[in-house]
Amino acid sequence: MSQIDNYIVAFLMLLSFSVPSQNSIDEDPEILQNNIDYRIAQSHSELEKYNYYKAEKHLNEALNLAQKLEDKKSTGIVYSNKGKLQLIIEEDNKAIKSLNKAIEIQRLSNDYVNLAHSYRILGEVYAAQNNHSQALDYYRSSKSLFEQEDMNENLAEIYLLQGKTYISLNKYKEAKAAFDKAIAGASKYNLLDIQSNALINQAKVYHKLGDNLNALTTGNNGLKIAKDNKFSVILDEAYITLSDINENLGNHKQVTNYLRAHIKLSDSIDNLKHANLSKDEEMEHLLNEEREKNKEVTQKLEESEDNKELNTLISILSVALITILSLLTLSLYKNNNIRLKTNNMLHKKNGELIIAKEKAELASKTKANFLSTVTHELRTPLYAVTGISNMLLDEDPKPEQIQHLKSLKFSGDYLLTFINDILQINKIEANKVEIEPEAFNLKKKINNIILALNNSALDNNIKIHFDYDKNLGENFIADQLKISQILINLIGNSIKFTKDGDIWIRVYKIQEKGSIYTLRFEVEDNGIGISKEKQDHMFESFSQGSIQINRKYGGTGLGLSIVKGLIEILKGKIYLKSELDKGTTFFFEIPLEYTQQEESKNEKKTANYFNGETNELDLTNVKILVVEDNKINQMITKKILTKMKLSCDVVDNGEEAVDMIKNNKYDIILMDIHMPGISGIEATKIVRTFDKELTIFALTAVTIEDKMHEFDEAGFTDIIPKPFKQEEFEKKLFNALSSKKTNSASA
């Protein structure tokens, strides 16, 4: 092979390698991302020079690349920047459309920082349209997100925009407060343009409030920063503001100087803006195209002048064609206007819905936090009420005091039930209730519920009848706790509103699909019944038949609302039939999975309460540590333990508890959760690092279900919720001591 042939082969091989290499470079995600970022940066640069057409061109190129890369974050940023550009060139409707696209993408991709920027710009658009309330809503949403993401350097601009909006609404005190925050934030983060702008606008506020001296000082400070940094737009606004202030002060020479400076600067800014408006460039481009087309048409017409008949025909056809095209153009124009208005309205409504949704979510979160705090604060004094009333009842009170103490105890128990019902409703509404399916015997479960409620039924001279379909199996997989809660509420309701009567409970199958059975449960009574007008609202919270019924029979009005919520969680439905003075029937349908399994082998371990004699236990050397910061609760717990012939030490914080456990031998720890310093959970975690076997009870007023996983992770042996029933408290302690005795004996 000759030397030339070798060169040719080498060249071809090099070419073959370079082509795919070039393609791979063009497709490389990092390079594409750099190109996107570069074009966005270029658009910002052109925007500062008022080159709107070039800025838009760079953004369109960036958008194409972002969509090619399927980069949601960059796509959202580009749409947001397009919205900002369209706001500047006064295309408000297009700006709303672009910004709503940006917001939709950023919400779905959880890009909260850039979502905050988009909200801010959308607020500016609505402010430009004099829709000030909508503007303030979007500014608030933007501020909330910036605070959430710890982007506090962006808050100064939000306060500046809020202040300007308040000026438009003539709310000068609110404007002043906003500008104060804007100036402080801008000064902290060295944002000179925002600082200058805020000072100028603060001067306007002082001027409006009649404080011209402060207005002059503040305005001059803003003017100096704008001059030093050549902020031409802010400088122009400063000249106008200071001319107004000086006119009030009678400084006519200064007024003239500022107005001349304003006119000169304003003209140069306007000329620069108009020279670079994208509309003008696009129009010039379109006109040039039309001129070229007209030249071609004219040339063709001139060539065909000799043929008069052809000219006539062409003229007629041209007129007809122009008429048709004009009509089509008019029709398209009208349709386009209608579509544009509809789209703008939809985008506006969509934006309003997003704001409303965020407000609702915030309100729901605030409500949940409020309820959690309030219930804890209520449970703590309730512990004192129920504990002290129990203690007094056990200490041989005077005969005339017994009824008062029983009333106090009843009130405490009623209040606790009410708190628990509110918490349950709150959990259902917040979708925090989880389904825990397990195998169980349905017939046995209902029999147990009837046995538990039978004493209450006998008090009202009621006979309960239970009819379980003979052809229906007994074992199912479902959340038996929720089914029990539903039935207890409904049967308890019937017992409450029935005297000297009967209650019928029926269970039968209405549908079967494979192993899934849809069962109907009926709870019928011949009690007082419910009027037609009240039946429609029976499942609403705090709904009862009437105030008189509430006073006579008691209750919180939350039971049926809880029942309906639980049935819906179990994917079922509930119905009601009732007639005054004849009785009521509640029937609900829920799907359950039929199983041959007798009983769940993986049931959660429950405490087996101590049923033996306490004298079988040696309580002489038993020592208990009570960790509790509330002095009243300390006294009550210590009193109960003393009555149980148990000695105890008391500490009021987690740090001291850990030290006491390290230096002493305790059999049981009663650990409160909320305490100053480290919490009971943190203290228990520390204890578990050096003692895995010690019995630690969480003695807590928090909602157990919400914190259960934290208690498990911390290593608590068991939980005793406050306020507790004294007999259950005693049984749990004796059970723990009995287990220790058994374990030590077997060892």
Could you name the key traits of this structure?
747 residues; alpha/beta; 7-stranded mixed beta sheet; 26 helices; extended
Task: Explain how this protein is built.
With 747 residues, the protein is an alpha/beta fold. It is 67% helix and 11% strand. It contains 26 helices and twelve strands. The strands form two sheets. Strands 1, 2, 3, 4, 5, 6 and 7 form a seven-stranded mixed sheet that branches. A five-stranded parallel sheet has the order 9-8-10-11-12, sandwiched between helices. Strand 6 and strand 7 form a beta hairpin. The longest helix has 86 residues. It is extended and about 110 Å long. The N and C termini lie far apart (94 Å). About 5% of the residues have low confidence. Its EC number is 2.7.13.3. GO terms for molecular function: ATP binding. This is histidine kinase. Keywords: ATP-binding, Coiled coil, Nucleotide-binding, Phosphoprotein, TPR repeat. Pfam families: HATPase_c, HisKA, Response_reg, TPR_12, TPR_8.
